[in-house]
Amino acid sequence: xxxxxxxxxxxxxxxxxxxxxxxxxxxxxxxxxxxxxxxxxxxxxxxxxxxxxxxxxxxxxxxxxxxxxxxxxxxxxxxxxxxxxxxxxxxxxxxxxxxxxxxxxxxxxxxxxxxxxxxxxxxxxxxxxxxxxxxxxxxxxxxxxxxxxxxxxxxxxxxxxxxxxxxxxxxxxxxxxxxxxxxxxxxxxxxxxxxxxxxxxxxxxxxxxxxxxxxxxxxxxxxxxxxxxxxxxxxxxxxxxxxxxxxxxxxxxxxxxxxxxxxxxxxxxxxxxxxxxxxxxxxxxxxxxxxxxxxxxxxxxxxxxxxxxxxxxxxxxxxxxxxxxxxxxxxxxxxxxxxxxxxxxxxxxxxxxxxx
Length: 356
Description:
Blueprint: E1 3-4, H1 8-13, E2 17-21, E3 24-29, H2 33-42, E4 45-48, E5 53-58, H3 62-67, E6 82-88, E7 94-102, E8 107-111, H4 116-125, E9 133-136, E10 141-147, H5 151-159, E11 170-175, E12 178-184, E13 193-199, H6 203-212, E14 216-217, H7 220-229, H8 264-273, E15 278-285, E16 296-299, E17 302-312, E18 319-326, E19 335-340, E20 343-350
Parallel strand pairs: 1-3, 4-14
Antiparallel strand pairs: 2-3, 4-10, 5-8, 5-9, 6-7, 7-8, 10-13, 11-12, 12-13, 15-18, 15-20, 16-17, 16-19, 17-18, 19-20
């Protein structure tokens, strides 16, 4: 039986029709995915991210410890700042994509659903004499993502605090008498974003306050259209442990001026002296059907890649996909085909993001 969000009953009351995604029962839509998408593009929409994991890192050496392991700058981040980053293996392959939020007395790592235990064990493997404590705080934390041009204004109206402008900046505030952490998103949906984190027991009240303030609940169908249009890779679909960091759009995930970390030599070698054999790129497809995860991308009957995520874009009105495609066929404008059932459908390689 799939896992349920802590606020599952709230979503059902709001009219959610649920779908199973990676062992989680998630709201697919609330009756009108197109209206949810429009709300996110023109107003403000609200996604429940209660299935994301949250790890708490404390101790005197927490920043230097994480700095030595993650692909992005950590040590220079002051309280109230943050970043997106990856944990790589020594071959430069992505073990996880995560968000780093630096607070006064701890660092929070927001990790993809189902990965908290694995990431905790991976970090603990590198822990020797450092003064660092690691803890899984997932079940104690409620996470919500506000999406859309009105997201910062809604947060400010409800809390009296406007989220700082730089991506992953964070600040404490009070919402309906509840202590919350406000975090500026990194644009995974292609627009303005504000995260709201609070204690799990306060999640229902915070959800109700955000919806009461004008945020429209956002289901998986609309969210996936936003994410894929923005060209944002999703760990577990577009990125997994077989993918090199250099094969995905990596500018926001890596610092080229920091010290060593696992996999850095591979990243630098590819950047300076070589290339990868495949790249994550976009596809625009003919017809109406979105291909399944893993569908082959072919040229002249030969497989040259595979679809990693696909949807019927609510903004473009046609199927689009993210795909890992061999370098020689990954230039924007290239004609390819995608296997769909017993046949193929024509497609064209597109630059990311699809929509700005």
